[in-house]
Amino acid sequence: MDERVVDTIVARVLERLASSRGNASSLMPQSDNGLISEDIKAGRVPIGVSARHVHLSREHHAILFGADSQLTVLRPLKQVGEYASEQQVTIVSPVGRCLGPIRVLGPLRSTTQVELSLTDCYGLGLKRLPPIRPSGDHRDTSGITLVGPAGSITIAAGVIRANRHIHMHPSQASVLGLRDRDVVAVRIEGERPAILFDVQVRVAETFRAELHLDTDDANALGVKTGDLAQILRSDRL
Amino acid sequence: MDERVVDTIVARVLERLASSRGNASSLMPQSDNGLISEDIKAGRVPIGVSARHVHLSREHHAILFGADSQLTVLRPLKQVGEYASEQQVTIVSPVGRCLGPIRVLGPLRSTTQVELSLTDCYGLGLKRLPPIRPSGDHRDTSGITLVGPAGSITIAAGVIRANRHIHMHPSQASVLGLRDRDVVAVRIEGERPAILFDVQVRVAETFRAELHLDTDDANALGVKTGDLAQILRSDRL
Questions:
Q1: Chain A residue numbers touching B195 (CB-CB < 8 A)
Q2: What is the pTM of this model?
Q3: Which one of A5, A80, A220, A222 has the fewest CB atoms closer than 10 angstroms to its CB?
Q4: What is the rounded distance in angstroms from the CA atom of residue A39 to the CA atom of residue A31?
């Protein structure tokens, strides 16, 4: 069966499981109405802080965890079908510095990707700092070594610092007047308030409104997952 | 001799030494003209990234490094009279996690102070996160254990996350129309651009224009010491 079909089915099952908790009627398809909260109408989206993590290809997963192993769900993430797995790896930089354990996020992907903060990169002693990239864009990226319980791999590319981005469902994008790949700014009233620019909008059926910040942005502002950010329509003030 | 008099003399000597490099005439008092660059006229100030560091009281320095020891200068800082010393300590949190070696900044002060980033605090497993404070303000702060080559101390208070602040000479503040303790915003075009709010202005004769950001702010934006920030007159947009 095509891998994308499998991923789609897994996503749908997890979506139903997540939404069925304590609500039998939610086994019916979710109406868009549930996605359009008062916060969304006012342009406010919850923050999701992304600590360093890895995505694995099927091939690399088999090497790191064994040919017969499977990713197991630790907890579902807000984006439908995505989850923090129970599996973790350690990464080792070209100068021999280690960082880990680092969580593997599921489901498996077509290409292995390692997402680090700039603080992580300095800690690893990376001489060539990973570029800031949207997930999946591995142009001009370097590699690193990943070590799991069953083996290790050294990837030639795929280490990125994730760009600031907001996931949203098409109905939420519509309310906000935004389209996939738009670039906006966000205002955040954390302990140390700021406006962050260069925030990419990403729209998909499985997405739910959530601003993903890495731990450097989150710790600079003193915010946690669930805190709110105000979308500013322009990407420049 | 009064400790403040000593500090003042040390500051003056270091100021002359710093400014006399390759310029014999600068042993004369520096004119304010040298402080008013084109950048300052345009409201631009250089960034100085402050990694975690400690300031020590004379008493605590003697315990950590020995009664007869002295701080020795590794390199002068931009603020006149201040320097990174060759001395370093390790700090140990109440749950037993260590961080170090951490640089001691000179000269000695009346009170010991430990300045950490939020990332540092999480790494140390601090249950009660240190408040964001201007240097010297230890209201509602907690303590930590410092370990040096000659001994250790556990302070009851003095661990802070430093607030965002800009040092400047009175002549620079005058050009910018700012006063001591004003609060401004700064716009920074780093790798990940942002406007940072709640930036405190500090004016003193020994100060030179420099925006001090901790490593969380610096790494969130992808900036380094020497990069420029644009002062926005208002603290709120």
A1: 194-195, 197, 237
A2: 0.85
A3: A5
A4: 17
